[in-house]
Batch of 4 targets.
Target 1
Amino acid sequence: MAKVKVYVTFKDGVLDPQGKTVKNALDKMGYKNIEEVRIGKFIELETKNGAGPSLKKEIDEICDKLLANPNIEQYRFEIE
Amino acid sequence: MAKVKVYVTFKDGVLDPQGKTVKNALDKMGYKNIEEVRIGKFIELETKNGAGPSLKKEIDEICDKLLANPNIEQYRFEIE
């Protein structure tokens, strides 16, 4: 069994309306120290098989095909 | 300026319907090696001031009040 942590974030330059909304909410709540908020996804996967040489390729495929939108999002992952 | 990375995940035992949906999609796509999927939020914050002694308290407050639902979610963060 292996655990994989995937981080999906918007590419630089892509507008993040959810992050902007949270930023505005924080302003109104008085947290003026926060200058920017970007919101992404944090995905934890558990695999049946251990971390073999093919796992990295498999996770790349899964990210490209399902977890991230390659037009506007980037991803990185850690295999544990 | 400091950067803060916040990870918000469901507490253990809380059902994650979005994760379940992704798990089912992966099954149908043939990725039988993936046994469990849990989906959370990954939030990046940038602050005006540097990482002082009060920043940890401020981020805890922001997580409790806005970023995480303390009833069903847990969070952790890293200050860089």
Note: Chain A has a mean pLDDT of 96.
Target 2
Amino acid sequence: MARLKRYLPILQWLTGYGRDTLANDLLAAVIVTVMLIPQSLAYAMLAGLPPEVGLYASIAPLFAYALFGTSRTLAVGPVAVVSLMTAAAIGRVAPQGSPEYLGAALVLALMSGLILTLMGVARLGFLANFLSHPVISGFITASGLIIAASQLKHLLGIEVSGHNLIEVSGGLVESLRLTHWPTLLIGIGALAFLYASRRWMGPGLRRLGLPAGSADMVVRAAPILAVAVTTLASWGLELGERGVAVVGEVPAGLPPLNLPSLDMTLWRELFVAALLISVVGFVESVSVGQTLAAKRRQRIDPDQELVGLGASNIAASFTGGMPVTGGFARSVVNFDAGAETPAAGAFTAVGIAIAALLLTPLIAYLPIATLAATIIVAVLSLVDFSAIRRTWAYSRSDAMAMLVTMIVTLGHGVESGILAGVGLSLALHLYNTSRPHSAVVGRLPGTEHFRNVKRHRVETDPRLAILRVDESLYFANSRYLEDLIMSLASREPGLAHIVLACQAVNTIDASALESLEAINTRLRDAEVKLHLAEAKGPVMDRLKHTDFCRELTGRVFLSTFDAWRYLRGESQHLGQPCGGTELANAGNPD
Amino acid sequence: MARLKRYLPILQWLTGYGRDTLANDLLAAVIVTVMLIPQSLAYAMLAGLPPEVGLYASIAPLFAYALFGTSRTLAVGPVAVVSLMTAAAIGRVAPQGSPEYLGAALVLALMSGLILTLMGVARLGFLANFLSHPVISGFITASGLIIAASQLKHLLGIEVSGHNLIEVSGGLVESLRLTHWPTLLIGIGALAFLYASRRWMGPGLRRLGLPAGSADMVVRAAPILAVAVTTLASWGLELGERGVAVVGEVPAGLPPLNLPSLDMTLWRELFVAALLISVVGFVESVSVGQTLAAKRRQRIDPDQELVGLGASNIAASFTGGMPVTGGFARSVVNFDAGAETPAAGAFTAVGIAIAALLLTPLIAYLPIATLAATIIVAVLSLVDFSAIRRTWAYSRSDAMAMLVTMIVTLGHGVESGILAGVGLSLALHLYNTSRPHSAVVGRLPGTEHFRNVKRHRVETDPRLAILRVDESLYFANSRYLEDLIMSLASREPGLAHIVLACQAVNTIDASALESLEAINTRLRDAEVKLHLAEAKGPVMDRLKHTDFCRELTGRVFLSTFDAWRYLRGESQHLGQPCGGTELANAGNPD
């Protein structure tokens, strides 16, 4: 039963579900539904898909997440960045507007769902660690800029396409003279209203005495107001017939049931995109989920979250949807509105289903420029240039990863951007740990402490070099270690002993072990003995049974001071050959 | 001048070059030449190239290395693994035997030369760290098996092709009935002789009173004996006309000067192969070079080595050669024969040039089965299955990387094998460091020491959790850290303080910093304060100016014991807010 509860988290909360919880969840659902309708339409449009696809993607996936997800308050559905990635991926395999384009979106959702579920079942959530914070931050900022730029055409009422900033900007400038002025008026109006409501409505309402939470919620409902007003205007003034682009006829009804294509060529073409969408969506979703869970001292299980998001995407793929994930803004609204369980998500799904059944005749009049304005305002809040400055101040290599991700995303598209960022951050991590901080140390006179000979006035012995390495030893730095020690040995002709002080070494992998063997052999050829000091318990446990240990020319000491006294002949009963029994509990145990 | 000497290492030894050194270098050159002739022919054949290409690749590249290389005794030329990789790469772009096939080998050498030189100039030698020891070991073993299997057809006198073990074995079994018996006789004879000379000749000669070094050298000359005897037999018995495959007419003369193709499509197709050949060749060469240099307490400079190998490959590409690198066996022979400077390499090149001018009429009669036998004996010494067992005993994840590299190389080819190994070892490294060893610690009664609560009987305080993390904090484990701390907070309802004990934290990257910020904020929402203890000097220096430090809810303590006393109200003057001035020299400086 405990096992079942783990894989079907709904069982954890359904049994204790009472009337108060129901009331809270219902209220939150109403508020989120109002917010989600324009978002669903807008993000479907951003992905180049018909508006109803956005609504469909906000129904079945929400039920699926309520069954399998572990966050109590996460609200799933189409989100900006994933929609942009969807557009880039399926735009490569089919022309926008064709049935193949729609079909590719379903395949992408199914693949992404399967990848997420598999990652969850195989507990591969750690793969998301490949995306470092700077890469995510750079990617989100760049995506926000691309999305905002891509919506300008809708504000201007012109035709432009492209998946990176250069293509989009070029197209815009070319077509600027074709601007449709009534469309621009609506777009700018909606944009100004949305911006003003974000900027001034909240504080204003609070000054009028509304509690901060409620004021925020009214602000977040501003897009639905913009949608309602411009739709009415469009209907009353027959703007659609005057050349203003409107959403147009949307089929009323519940999501269709369909089977995604099983064309393997298509699957292969979309695989990398599906993988990246899965990982990016997961990272975005899990960080929102963790932030919200922490506020109520709840927990989410990242591996089960993968299953929850996977189920949501699979549900989307069978019901005419598109790739989905947990959205930041809507989850915060859900949380603030008092949602207590994933049931709020299910109720939201019911709300969207009602909208899909009843509101589509109205949605037909909705000007596309209004949707574009809501997208622009939403994504520009994701753009954070100050992060570059802050990261640069803290760490050059992290800032470099961020900048490269941003530049490649802007210049070459979303997938290249992420891959470049991941590749670079791995390379930089290897580079940084491949030349770990190290110091030749000497004894602070009169103490048992050993410090860097370059920074402190310390005692040294020409026959003895003590080297402290401040990093675990593994494949990225094992060659550097060889080089470091051999250069030490070749520099000091009188040297007879090298002591490796290992207090900062948490692990030694097989590459580093082979390097240590090579170092030991080469030092033996050069008639220098190699000793270890301060090795930790777990490290020593593994070393004990190796050839390195059997062939080590020197001894193993509990402390650097022991090594110092023994090797200077001041004491004879310190340290022992490697592989001795006492060492099991030496150093820094547990 | 010092700068020039660095980039042109020949200047370091040429000025002090005397008569004794000359004599030693000349002797070594003669011995290496004798050994290199059959090897050059054999490895050219392994790469599917005409035999003279192997000779050409052993002339100009040796001069280039003598100018730019830093190892005093490394002997460059065609080597087994690189030749196998060359065959796999150029076999994809042109049919063997065509002029395009030859041209592709030149392009591959040029690209590999440029890549190596660029890596050297940009000091990118650390990229070789991506190849961990287990991956190299698995790759070499698998390559040895493939190479040995690929030569069986020459022993049997039949036609088979393929670049992985499955293809090769399948072909062999199919064609077994076509075995050419005289060829098999020569092949088996050569194989038995070479094997026996390795096994028994050395010890036998030593028992007869020959010094160990000389005995080894005679053994290493065994292939030339096999070549001479079978060539004579082939000439005397006219074996070529009786269906035994012989090398056939080889143009006599010095290497031609040529310009490699600049066809960009070809360059693009060969890029990944050239990159892998460069890295594998560099790793093989640099480890031989370091081992030999250490024996005489000399040093090699890995970045300059890249330039040396790059120059060699560029030289090969303009003189009708193929990709080259430093070979293990021939470098050891060169060293043992007493070579003192790279001049020995230049003299070897002269020797090979003389062979190319004068010996080609003889080489025409050389049975291919003899070359196959020398290749098989040479590469089987690279096959090391015991490494799997040893590595498995030491580290499961390293053994896994080794096995996967081996299996993919055997089943899918050399490039896939390396890429799979590198990918897996990176993923495993991230996985292992993404869940670092950590422990909630408590106080050993009566001491200032804090140990794992699960392993020791220690004092704890329900309002206080002290967490020690035994790893640097970076993007691979930052999410785990968040999860770890938030689960700690959600498990203990009475908790008011969490102390992060950082003695094993060598660095905190930007991802981990953001995670710490998120942890601090979430803990604040949950009314738990976050404190730091035992943070090292350099880590604290960088943290001091961050938002995390400004917003940290708790204090920073020099020791865990300070934190314990302060947070239990036993002392009020311990620790300080983050960003205080005293901390600059706190913890573990330098």
Note: Chain B touches chain A through 84 residues (CB under 8 Å).
Target 3
Amino acid sequence: MTYHPLGDMLAALRESTPLVHCMTNYVAMNSTANLLLATGASPAMLHAAEEVAEFTAMANALSINIGTLSAPWAESMQLAARTADTTDTPWVLDPVAVGATEFRQRVCQALLSHRPSVIRANASEVMALAGLASQGRGVDATASVDDATHAAMTLAQRQRCIVAMTGETDVITDGSHHVRLTGGHPLMPRVTTLGCGLSALVAGFVAANREHPLAATLAALACFGIAGHRAGQQAKGPGSFQVAFLDALYQLTPEDLSSQSQVETLHAV
Amino acid sequence: MTYHPLGDMLAALRESTPLVHCMTNYVAMNSTANLLLATGASPAMLHAAEEVAEFTAMANALSINIGTLSAPWAESMQLAARTADTTDTPWVLDPVAVGATEFRQRVCQALLSHRPSVIRANASEVMALAGLASQGRGVDATASVDDATHAAMTLAQRQRCIVAMTGETDVITDGSHHVRLTGGHPLMPRVTTLGCGLSALVAGFVAANREHPLAATLAALACFGIAGHRAGQQAKGPGSFQVAFLDALYQLTPEDLSSQSQVETLHAV
Amino acid sequence: MTYHPLGDMLAALRESTPLVHCMTNYVAMNSTANLLLATGASPAMLHAAEEVAEFTAMANALSINIGTLSAPWAESMQLAARTADTTDTPWVLDPVAVGATEFRQRVCQALLSHRPSVIRANASEVMALAGLASQGRGVDATASVDDATHAAMTLAQRQRCIVAMTGETDVITDGSHHVRLTGGHPLMPRVTTLGCGLSALVAGFVAANREHPLAATLAALACFGIAGHRAGQQAKGPGSFQVAFLDALYQLTPEDLSSQSQVETLHAV
């Protein structure tokens, strides 16, 4: 498999500064906005049923994360996702802890009917969405990436979307092409909501690179991998990691992204 | 125009540590609280209809920011703003993205009837509130400050309040006196919700300086300008900027504020 | 009074990484999650009535903080607290500003009937819960720790729970044993929601040390005391303090905790 240079994806993001409508959990809102601004996208957070469809229709992308879900938010998420589907606006689903409660499973199933462009999830969540046994313990991923790679491919084929399954190693697939990405740093799981922010960043990258959704998704994950690695070199713990990570995303160049991403093509498993 | 030394405004804030009742968006809550604590005010966040009026009545100031608006919050905001108006408590309106949806315009029009002391907004929002064409793209300001200065003056005169319009250059006006303020750093727009926090800080400054609302507003903006400039000198990106900015607000002295603020009197345009 | 070495409590936390179901205020969510992850616990934030009991039943601990209370959240908190009581899951109540409004007093009284394991509060809140005069000014503590020590003992005896009253000096009591803890740094009150995060950390420590709830509570507070002191040595203000504090919690060893905690046994006053 060949794909567009990842650096081009980042250059396009910075040139177009896509407006990403983020419906995300309360824990992640601030950090998500900062991650997008640091990298080069433009975040906007709003969720009221009175305005959500109106706003999604004018945004360049939508990102839905169900972390701190509630009934009114679930309703608004349906409105936004339906609008994104109707207006052909790229949208990303982040099904936080979908295997943990029936409420989450029900809401996610309804959201899937609006055809997300990308599902960004950990291994447990991918397995739960694919209908395989979930060993999800709250928001942790306890299934191994190897166990879940097959589930990711199955889910991508069934939903006709990209699945970006992140963990120590990331797996990105559109059902036909499968890629593995390494990088990052062991401190990353010690900082909350980095994955949530990544979902919104994927939305921005896909919006800025409409012709290349798989490479765009990969580029977003590679930004995290490289910036995470760099931040980890300087950090003394999760506090200094967060600071260095935002700085590294800001300083990251398209050339860095093209030359330093650790991508490997996978064959179906 | 002459005005009170800005350093006096900061000294008064630190001496009285005004309790600022903040009704702000989910993205901004944590950073707003930290910005107020670093500078010398005392934040409290609560919003339930069951208690909001009771609390506003005992606070020294109120700050309302409609960022992540919803119907229940809009109702509580009306209760709080009405209480502030009735009890003569200074209050600040931050009309985030008011031009973006009908819902926001409707809620803001209702809030304006409770006579805010100060409106803190970007150029697009000022133009939308003034009834002029808004080019607002979500939460971004795309109207130039020059285009919007006239709108700010018009809005201040119509509402009989102070308008603090922030951007690369700030314009502060009470309808009769018009001031321009420069400072800050290009990294500031790369950090989320600094403007939201500034609105709450303005509320604190006005509460601590009831006789001098225009100078108090100017002092709050000047704190951001000087601290932002200093933080920018040390920062490697938006992560280290945030850290240095909180430290700079904490270290800022009244003498710094009086001597380093870059204020220029404007004539009506 | 003798108690288990505090370092053992931290070692147990890190070995079991307890899943702490956090129902906390919007201001505190992100910082609470990061404080738990840095120290070694696993946070999960969710609050919908549709799922909250289901989740509490599988978590290792529950922490309820009423900071940005609303009627739907109050209802969910009752469901979660009742579940924790029924399933014998340790749970912590953080009654933010309980003395400030009638709404908060009513909600806290109902929550107390579900028998919290620990109440973590400042002096004003302890006095309000104990039914003594509160001088609470919003979320600030204006009652002195000395004034409130008696109230803490009374409350612990009446509720048959641990009361962890924090301030410049902390007082921890189960009604029979009373301990005083010093440490920390004057910058800590200049950073928002550290106390809120501490409540959730107490929940994690108690879950990881079911046989020793008093020592576990003390260990959580001692982590904050030592890490706060260390962070304060390096910080230039509240921005760099936050970064250094997360790093210090991450770097803290069980040996540090056993050797450096400043604990003193109290006699009833």
Note: The CA atoms of residues 57 and 83 of chain B lie 6 Å apart.
Target 4
Amino acid sequence: MQDILERLNAGEVVVGDGGMVLQLERRGYVKAGHWTPEAAVQHPEAVHQLHREFLRAGADVLQTFTFYCSEDKLELSGNVTDITGAEINEAACDLAREKWLKGSALVAGCVSQTPCYLGNHNEAEVKSLFKKQMDEFLKKDIDFFIAEFFQYVEEAAWAVEVLKTSGKTVGATMCISPHGDMSGLPPGDCAVRLVKAGADIVGVNCHLDPTACIQTVNGYMGLPEFPFVVLLSSLSLICRSLTRWDVHKYAREAYEAGIRYIGGCCGFEAYHIRAISEELRAERGFLPPASEKHGLWGAALEMHTKPWVRARAHREYWESLLPASGRPKCPSMATPEYE
Amino acid sequence: MQDILERLNAGEVVVGDGGMVLQLERRGYVKAGHWTPEAAVQHPEAVHQLHREFLRAGADVLQTFTFYCSEDKLELSGNVTDITGAEINEAACDLAREKWLKGSALVAGCVSQTPCYLGNHNEAEVKSLFKKQMDEFLKKDIDFFIAEFFQYVEEAAWAVEVLKTSGKTVGATMCISPHGDMSGLPPGDCAVRLVKAGADIVGVNCHLDPTACIQTVNGYMGLPEFPFVVLLSSLSLICRSLTRWDVHKYAREAYEAGIRYIGGCCGFEAYHIRAISEELRAERGFLPPASEKHGLWGAALEMHTKPWVRARAHREYWESLLPASGRPKCPSMATPEYE
Amino acid sequence: MQDILERLNAGEVVVGDGGMVLQLERRGYVKAGHWTPEAAVQHPEAVHQLHREFLRAGADVLQTFTFYCSEDKLELSGNVTDITGAEINEAACDLAREKWLKGSALVAGCVSQTPCYLGNHNEAEVKSLFKKQMDEFLKKDIDFFIAEFFQYVEEAAWAVEVLKTSGKTVGATMCISPHGDMSGLPPGDCAVRLVKAGADIVGVNCHLDPTACIQTVNGYMGLPEFPFVVLLSSLSLICRSLTRWDVHKYAREAYEAGIRYIGGCCGFEAYHIRAISEELRAERGFLPPASEKHGLWGAALEMHTKPWVRARAHREYWESLLPASGRPKCPSMATPEYE
Amino acid sequence: MQDILERLNAGEVVVGDGGMVLQLERRGYVKAGHWTPEAAVQHPEAVHQLHREFLRAGADVLQTFTFYCSEDKLELSGNVTDITGAEINEAACDLAREKWLKGSALVAGCVSQTPCYLGNHNEAEVKSLFKKQMDEFLKKDIDFFIAEFFQYVEEAAWAVEVLKTSGKTVGATMCISPHGDMSGLPPGDCAVRLVKAGADIVGVNCHLDPTACIQTVNGYMGLPEFPFVVLLSSLSLICRSLTRWDVHKYAREAYEAGIRYIGGCCGFEAYHIRAISEELRAERGFLPPASEKHGLWGAALEMHTKPWVRARAHREYWESLLPASGRPKCPSMATPEYE
């Protein structure tokens, strides 16, 4: 198994994993509102199982379950009193490792935005938080770093600068819209800033539906400075979820936009990652293990006893499906409260 | 831990588990269209983890992962060539047992409708399929039986008659609408037939949203013949899922309708079962373990940095929420193809 | 021009007119909330023009613009201080007559439910209100009577009993649902009661969408006592209107259900009545005058400059159209406040 | 009654009229797809009545019913064989005159885009079509000119240049989006071009919902060259109509954006124009005649027999109403076919 950059340089399509905190919240192991990853220590078997599902669905990279695992965030949340960040970060590295998982994937050590940055914008303090996490990861065997879920490019750039001191490959993904980051810097400028800070791979993640993600990434793609873009889309809202058929379309569009590292974020479950793997099976040359339990485009419906169900066993049916909400008393679009 | 009937007789509210085949399909272990449970042998850790989630969410009963595990159905599906039904049924009993799960719940051995019934309506043949499954369960340590997911009351009654020969408590739940079963028999008549066949507990499951489930059960409740009703609601369709707040409402309505065994079916995940447990915490006297990772009614949002998110940390907000589909080009209701 | 009963007996399809009070409210001549018809005196040219539109659209019967024109209702509304009911009723008869309209249609003198009935249920008093209106109509030249918009069958039957004393044909339409009238009497029983009171034609009008109207009328149709049924559908709510294509479907379904007097109620405009006439052009043997300004099924789009508009010039396009609301932040169904 | 420019210069709010061709199509006098105004000759009483409704609703300006009345368009439509454009234009001027209408309003002679422009872009030919119409209007007594419904600014500017030779005031409104006209010229540039051609008043009309109209006009407003802006919004699509409450909001927003000539386009009926008049009653100092038949904000519901209807008799209820479509099987947004 080669290095992530070698693989991307060789033209390989790299499939990422899905959203861990949101899924583990639904399973009962993460507290919504806090979103901290202490389950890596408290319930390792639950974290372990979710890694295994993403691996089975075709993920080439597993991200450590270390979202919001900076010391300041853990302290602020107040729901982790007897476990240190170091314990979580180290346990999470072990959980993502292949020896547990009976499969092989690269492991990316992940850091994310800190409350400290919003509080005081103190570069030294924020960087020391990232440095501490990086050192903990380096005690374990991780393959590269990802700085993810940053709303301000300045903080993301600081994270990249710290992580680059490790000598390892560093990717950085921001949760920004086509209008730019929270400071108003357009996507293209954010990307340039991250590359200048040392990022080898840049991308977007979360807060956006796939179409908006790809539109945002287009702001990245026009620039010559960076070779690789990662796309991690989100579908996390209540009662809103992408179908596997939506993800086929998303994976194809991302591929056609030139993106070669494609994964998911909040709301992506194993069947979404499998859909990426299945859509790009020709380009990748293989199907993931989980496809043994999946008829492509509903093929397993061909033997249904009811003719109108058998009629669904083909791609055209699912591609043209307009899924109903089942909620006629609800709107189809909400008004964002911050508008 | 008492017997299920003792607990119901004592007035206890019994919480069931959620939907296993649908959830394990999403995780990559069950094939949609076939819906057979060979993962109990092939991927026991995945089945085991899902049991653990439901247990942690407050389930008092775990159903064995043996849906559609009659020999005729396994053979018809064609995707289980080297594993016998006996192997699956026996493995599934072990997986639902508490020694694995570090918790305690009653284990219900489950049988479901057979292709054989639809094919030839041969009572002896259908009953021998149920008898074989029952004997496999009885090699293991299960607490009682559930016959579930029957569309015809005749077949359900045959299953009950077989299972009662074990001497154990038998529950039976049908997937029927307020209009009755597929032969047109109204819910109340179905219930009488099941009770006459020997069922100790009767109920409905699947194919219906909660409101319709409760309406159907009302067809059961008016009759004096049977003491206990189980309610297993479903929310399985693409892009349609109940919110945890919907489930609070559903659990309360079911309780007020006099139902004392309340669980979920296809689409119910751990957070739905937890919502049942949380809604009925006063009646049951305790919260489930998973509630340590859940602020009731969004309480964990109270410390959010953004004021409009903090404003959501109360019950009124979530109860009055009309979740948007995010799909303005889709309808809110679909036209059933069989109409 | 024959009598209405002769025409119906001869198998003719009789087309009714549309909704006058609602349309004249939009045009500025009727006060919403009161819905009284003083415009017959105050703005005869506006009433006259609307009659002319319905006539031109194919109406065989024009109803006098005398909705809610009982003395008690006029007094209660308080917005008609210097005009008597007699003046309105008489003016309305003239306005519906063909000498003004340059066309020919039967004129039906109309009475509707009274506040008096709800107030005291005094048969003598309610009947005297209907008697007074009837006498005013009989001073003018009307062809037959319609008692319309009754929520209680008892009051409708009283109206029929009074109107029958004139020796003229009497029709009666109630605004009831498939569940029956406001006293809970099922549609079929309402119809029998009306026929026993002397009604020659019975029907339903208003408060219902076309599908529910036809479903309600089915409650009427099974009975042998009455030969003729009139169907007046409604589409009056804010932002809800039937398309002309919906009305094609409605007219066909009504015809196939055996109904031979088909019109509209609140919300039906001239183009809806024209759609009834156009759908039933083969059965009636002619098109109405207004069809000179209408390409059937969008035929006039055939010469549009844009190809995607030309592609709409055929029946299949319009029949399969699912019209969007354009309001993604609104629900598709509302919750009735009286539930 | 002063000149339109004197009134606007004096700070008066001028209310326009609504959409004539669309409304007369519904009434049976205009052919959809052709949209030509031969009804001015064929059915003057219908045109006359609609003018009267707009006047009664508070319109200060009535536009002649001469949409698409250039000779080339009339010939192309093929549905006007025995009537000349001159006959229509002259009849239309008479119909909009106050002597018929028993009220007073300014009369604007209107020209609109020509098929000739799209066909050959021949300036001399297109201008001669406008010149012919202008000369016909000048035989009658009109107050000023409006060039309306132009998709290309070049053709609109040609129309203005011709009309200015009359010495009369000229307004020009284009049906363009915030992205500009069909040639891609932004709204502000379109406006400058029109003003340079001699337009005294510029504006937008049709093809847009009110919010987009105001957004487009903002592209006009920033420029110093022109003093007056007219806003004619549209709501013409099947099953989409603005409520009177939507129009209150639209009128207020237009007023606050500095617009002082506010009317409607396709789909605006008398009750929409009345809503403009009612919203701006304080600014204008009076209510229109049609308000005698309208309780502001549902005031007439105060005396309804049902309490939940009485509860609607206030502004807050109607302002917060989210009108349901009543069509759960339809989407809320459509996909434009030309995308």
Note: Chain A has a mean pLDDT of 89.
